[in-house]
Design brief:
By secondary structure, this protein is an alpha+beta fold. The two termini are 25 Å apart.
Length: 342
């Protein structure tokens, strides 16, 4: 029987993540945390707000679906109240809609959009809310932003329908969650030098990271070895902390005791011809995602005459290569196991 959202909601526990700007988070927290405390008590949902000095924060709402819907209703009505207050001294004549941004695993976005956009069109028409699914993944993650705009009642109905889709189509494979980056702060090195780029600081400590942080344990799925899921996030963080390729137009920063041209290793894979399409994706979309997320350079050789395989060459740091291998193998595993493309 398909789950339906009736009076009382669905009797299952669900976690929904929201992406908010600092000002929106301040509104939800309230003076001395009074607003968020009231929301927790009245909705029965767990509401957690990510720490950190970031322009964006993640608000995680967990609980039975009816509790989640109550929490969403309270957030939507709070935002509408904020809009009303901001318009008191404003000359604007039209009232802007309430807008919420959900963070959804990319593997579930296909079900949310539906064939030829049929599902998202149905949700828009039945709820009156505007729904937009971002085309690109959020930086360094396998999640996308889903923006909902409209009157609070429309938003609540829209969230209910999105919850049903997410329950019917669970995420495929491991999800790398989006983590907002902190505001850039100066980093002081042992030599007294100061840099304002946290990524450069991480690059300077790459050798230490590689010595003290073991690369992930691998599990076998079918004929492919992939990192254990609970190690995936660590691997991704390590890969992003050092990409040995300098972006165009930039120079490699120099650090004491570190060679500016860090060595990059190369790894080769042979992929059957009939599976190479799921790695490349439409117009190269999938291989470009893998390149972006892993930080590795990936080259796919042209098909050799008479060969049943294509050669893939991956170049980068050990962490870049491991993550690229994981992402390639995850796509192969889903294709071979009949789950369809991720």
């Amino acid at each position: 029987m398909e789950p339906k959202v009736n009076e009382g909601g669905l009797n299952v526990t669900l976690t929904i993540r929201l992406l908010m700007h600092g000002k929106e988070v301040g509104s939800i927290i309230g003076k001395k945390g009074e607003t968020v405390k009231k929301m927790r008590e009245e909705s029965g949902a767990r509401i957690n707000i990510s720490e950190g000095n970031c322009p964006e924060r993640i608000v995680t709402i967990t609980g039975p679906t009816d509790a989640i819907f109550k929490a969403f209703a309270m957030i939507a009505f709070k935002f509408e109240e904020d809009i009303d207050n901001s318009m008191t001294n404003s000359t604007a004549t039209s009232k802007p809609p309430v807008t919420l941004r959900l963070v959804v695993p990319a593997s579930q976005c296909g079900s949310l959009i539906g064939k030829g956009g049929s599902k998202i069109k149905e949700i828009r028409e039945s709820t009156g809310a505007q729904v937009q699914v971002a085309g690109d993944m959020l930086p360094n993650s396998t999640e996308r932003a889903v923006t909902i705009s409209g009157m609070p009642d429309a938003i609540i109905q829209c969230v209910k329908q999105i919850c049903v889709v997410m329950l019917e189509s669970p995420p495929k494979g491991a999800t790398i969650p989006y983590r907002p980056k902190p505001a850039s702060a100066p980093v002081i090195f042992a030599g007294g030098q100061v840099r304002a780029d946290p990524l450069s600081a991480s690059a300077a400590n790459l050798s230490l990271l590689l010595q003290h942080q073991p690369l992930p344990a691998y599990t076998i799925q079918g004929q492919y070895a992939i990192p254990h899921p609970d190690q995936l996030t660590k691997l991704h963080q390590l890969a992003m902390q050092h990409t040995p390729f300098t972006p165009l137009g930039q120079t490699t920063p120099g650090f004491p005791g570190m060679d500016a041209n860090s060595p990059a290793s190369t790894h080769e894979l042979a992929i059957p011809n009939d599976l190479i399409g799921c790695i490349i994706g439409r117009q190269g979309s999938k291989i470009n995602e893998i390149r972006q997320m892993s930080g590795a350079q990936i080259k796919i050789a042209n098909a050799a005459e008479g060969s049943t395989e294509r050669q893939i060459t991956i170049t980068g740091s050990p962490a870049n290569i491991s993550l690229a291998q994981y992402l390639i193998n995850a796509r192969l595993t889903s294709e071979v196991s009949g789950m369809g493309p991720l």
